[in-house]
Amino acid sequence: MLTYNYSYSKLLNLRQYAGKITTAVGSVLKDLGIFHYRGTRGGRKSKFHTKSNKDIDSKNLSNINKKVQEAVRKQKPAKYFHWRAGQINVNTCSDDFLLHETLIQIKAANLDIVCMQEVRRIGTGAISHEGYNVYWTGLKIKKMYGVAIAIKQSPHIKVSNVYYVYERLMAIDVTIKNCKLRIVSAYSPTESGSESSKDIFYAKLSKVTRVENNTKLLLMGDFNATSTITTRKSLFDGNLHRFQDTDDISNDNGTRLINYCSDFKLCILNTWFDHSNVHRITWHSNDGVTKKTLDYNICDHWLRKYVTDTRVYNNYYLSSDHRILVSNMTTPANKAARWKKHKKKKQSKRANMSKLKDRETTTTTSTERYTTLMTVLNKAVEEVPKKTRNQNAHPWDGDERLKQLIKERKNINKSTVTYKEEEIKAMQKAIKIRVKELRNEYLYEEASKLNEAHQNRKIFDLWRKAKEHGDVIRKAPKPIKCPGLREHFKDHFNPDQSSLKIPDEISTPPEYIINLRQPEFEIDNEPPSKKEIIDAIGHLKGRKATLDVASEMLQVATENPVFVDHVHRLFEEIWRTKEVPSDWGLSKLTTIWKKKRQST
Predict the structure, then answer these.
(1) Counting beta carbons within 10 angstroms of the beta carbon of residue 465, is it exposed (0 to 12), middle (13 to 18) or buried (19 or more)?
(2) Which of 93, 519, 523, 562 is most buried, taking the most CB atoms under 10 A from its CB?
């Protein structure tokens, strides 16, 4: 009889199309009169059911099989491949019977790759059992320590290299559906272990986890490490600065593990998903009270994007005080899946140079060319948005009592009372007293914060805030008046030319000066090129502009080739006519007093 059971599916060769029996295959079976399609009812999934109970000979089965295979081939290949990786400290797998029992539970968990610790098998070796290829390494004589990696026998998983490092560490290079990975199984010394054994373990681990750029890393193991970071969804991505003040219960192994992940920029997958403590704790003590998280799944940043879940499963029977930790992966199977559309960055608003582009100057003199350039630059500066200042000049401007006093003063000024000078003076006095009280309160609060910050060694941030409100401590200096300074510099820079005489050193120069005036080498007298103009403007210091236009604005303007072309024409005109713009002869004098302010 035709029934959809294991024997029929095996004869029809449908088991190899697991996950691909969709509408394409269903339509073939429906046309042949074998299955009929039942639609979704009440939220249930669609299913195919047998339509008849007629006997089918082998010839019809072979035709059906060919048509099903053809329908599956026409389907587009899946972009992503789903697989599961886990790790467990088995306590012991020293004999084949214990290994058999462990693999049965691993198979029930539907794991493709499993890292096992403390297998306690002698030497190195490999064995195939229960649909898995198991590789292990341990001590040569004693049945202690030892790690192993079990790889599911699948056409999508190919093993290329096996690295037996030592009894606590091993690695395997695999290719899972066009995705190259290095799987590392690690078993760290316990907290009571010697410092030298821990140093050796992390030195070897650092060496084996250095992979090529096209190979991704997945590290799973029992690190005997406790940390506050792993007890919640902390999203640890190797950036240690975000977690320095939050790790309270970290032991020595925990500190070493966190520092190792920070050095190699690795993500701890236990911290990337929101689960209860039941699905986070990996070790249960025999006393039934002590519970800890000692096992971790770790990967690089690229692989972390394709991890859909990481949690502990407690419903599998394993003769161990540890629980199995599983990570679900959905890795890309081809180039199309790896490609991701990146959002374009918003470009900042640039100066408007359209007027230079649309307008060809017909001026000939350097002064007119320079005036045109400065006009365009000044208009461009006006279009740049200016930085707005805070409306409240002082921290206490928002006080309600102060606002009420200021409002009453305005009302008195608007009133028609003839004798209101005394009222205004009284209100002014009340406002000053209120401002003084608020200033004293503010300074007292700031001083208290400084004392607390000094105790906590965080005085830098508060000192920066105090500098921003520097007007609280001292008032702005009054402008300095220098009535005699202008006449002094006017006489200094405009001396009487009639009394000046040419020095003898210039009228009759010595012989070596005459030789210097006739150099044998050639001097480049050509005007500066566009590249030299761009480099010179690029080296201008900020906030030290000699013009009315800031140097930062000139540096932005050099990104426009039209602006550079006009500046180049200006210098060519200067070189040709030997005349500089008249504005270049203007200068501004600013008084800079040394030490205390002086008045003249």
Answers:
(1) exposed
(2) 93
Question: What is the Cα–Cα distance from 380 to 388, expressed in whole angstroms?
Answer: 18
Q: Which residues pair with 217 in a beta bridge?
A: 182
Q: Looking at per-residue confidence, does 247 or 123 come out higher?
A: 123
Is 190:209 a contact under the CB 8 Å cutoff?
no
Read off the pLDDT of residues 16-72 as tens digits, 9 standing for 90 and up: 444 444 555 566 666 665 554 444 444 444 444 444 444 455 556 677 777 777 776
User: SS3 string of 375-397?
Assistant: HHHHHHHHHCCCCCCCCCCCCCC
Residue 327 forms beta bridges with which residues?
A: 85, 310
Question: 400-414 vs 421-456: helix axis angle to the nearest 10?
Answer: 160
When pLDDT is averaged across residues 507-524 and rounded to a whole number, the result is 76
Specify whether the CB–CB gap between 206 and 213 falls below 8 A. no
Question: Quick one: three-class SS letters along 42-76?
Answer: CCCCCEEEECCCCCCCHHHHHHHHHHHHHHHHHCC
Instruction: State residue 325's pLDDT score.
Output: 93
What are the pLDDT digits (tens) for 278-295? 899 999 888 888 898 999
Residue 568's SS3 state is: helix
- Confidence at 521, pLDDT banded by 50, 70, 90: low
Tokens of 354: 């359209």
Q: What pLDDT was estimated at residue 335? A: 79
CB–CB of 312/87 below 8 Å?
no
Task: Tell me which amino acid residue 569 is.
Answer: R
Give the phi and the psi of residue 148 in degrees, each rounded to 5: -150, 160
Phi, psi for residue 139 in degrees, rounded to 5: -70, 155
Closest CA to 71 of 32, 45, 105: 32
Closest to 554 in 3D by CA, of 386, 383, 373, 382: 373
CA 123 to chain centre: 44
Nearest 10 degrees: Cα torsion 103, 108, 110, 113: -20
Q: What is the pLDDT of residues 540-588, one digit of tens each?
A: 887 665 566 778 888 888 888 888 888 888 888 888 888 888 877 777 6
Report pLDDT for 213: 83
The amino acid at 258:
I
Q: Helix axis angle, 561-577 relative to 366-383, nearest 10°?
A: 160
Residue 54 is predicted with a pLDDT of: 47
**Are 279 and 267 within 8 A, CB to CB?**
no
Indicate the range of 157-166, 193-202, 404-413 predicted with least confidence.
Answer: 404-413
Domains observed in the chain: 6-74 (no CATH), 80-338 (3.60.10.10), 528-600 (no CATH)
Judge whether 187 and 145 are in contact, CB under 8 Å: yes
CB 198 within 8 A of CB 252: yes
